[in-house]
Amino acid sequence: MKKIVILLNLLCAFYFNSLAQTTYTWNVTRGDWNSPSSWSPARNTPAANDILVFNGSTIPNACATLITTQTIGKLRIINNANVRFIAKAPTQATGTISRASGNVTGSSTLFTTELKQGDVITNGNAFYGEVSSITSNTAMVVSALGNLTNVPFYFAQSLNLNDGTTSALDISSGSVLTMSDSTLVIRILNGSKGSVNGTVRMLN
Fold it and tell me: Which of 2, 4, 64, 117 has its CA 20 to 30 A from that of 203?
């Protein structure tokens, strides 16, 4: 019986540790978002519930580059931090699309697995629209009008915040987030909320 109790205790400890969130704080003036050494502690095993912090008290001016699509728990930009995000170039999607008055049909496309509502699609440069709804792998609606015929397309990188709280996004008063060079979508997923008391800027 004693062995069984010890085993149960170990299993419970493992279970609750697996649910724990890890907080990572940006620790360089300019660096690759995906490099473990850009964070403290080193972000060797990114998880979908990570809390990522840019703290102006330690790094007043920070630039994170090569940001790629991922889901995290929470993004915090605090203590008068001045932060710049530069996303990796848009990713080419599978297949080709045609568009008529916002209705998009695909050929050999994977809309339901590659895209989410709110994603921005482009040809790599020109804006093709923001995804309003997805019906199937080959049918969706976007915000832009006009006609396209059998063209390749790309989707912008996105940060998906999924903390399940009212503070999945926290940009505090006096802090600034600038997104530039390449389109980046910051999406707060259902069940989460955020607050922006600082400034958000978008530059070409």
Answer: 117
For the record, the structure tokens of 58 come out as 């330690």
Alpha helices in the chain (DSSP H): 2-19, 111-114
Q: Is 202 helix (H, G, I), strand (E, B) or coil?
A: strand
What does pTM read for this prediction? 0.85
**Is the pLDDT score of 66 beyond 70?**
yes
Find all residues with CB under 8 Å of 121, minimum gap 6, and list them. Answer: 93, 97, 115, 128, 129, 130, 131, 142, 153, 154, 155, 156
Q: Residue 29 in contact with residue 61, Cβ under 8 Å?
A: yes
As a CATH number, domain 91-155 is 2.40.30
Rounded-to-integer distance, Cα 108 and Cα 141, Å: 17
pLDDT 10s digits, 121-153? 998 878 999 999 999 999 999 999 999 999 999
The length of the chain is: 204
Task: Say how far apart CA 88 and CA 182 lie, in whole Å.
Answer: 7
Let me know the angle formed at the C-alpha of 33 by 29 and 35, rounded to the nearest 5 degrees: 95
Each residue's pLDDT tens digit, 70-104: 999 999 999 999 999 999 999 999 999 999 999 99
Would you kindly state where each structural domain of the chain is located, as residue ranges?
2-88+158-202, 91-155
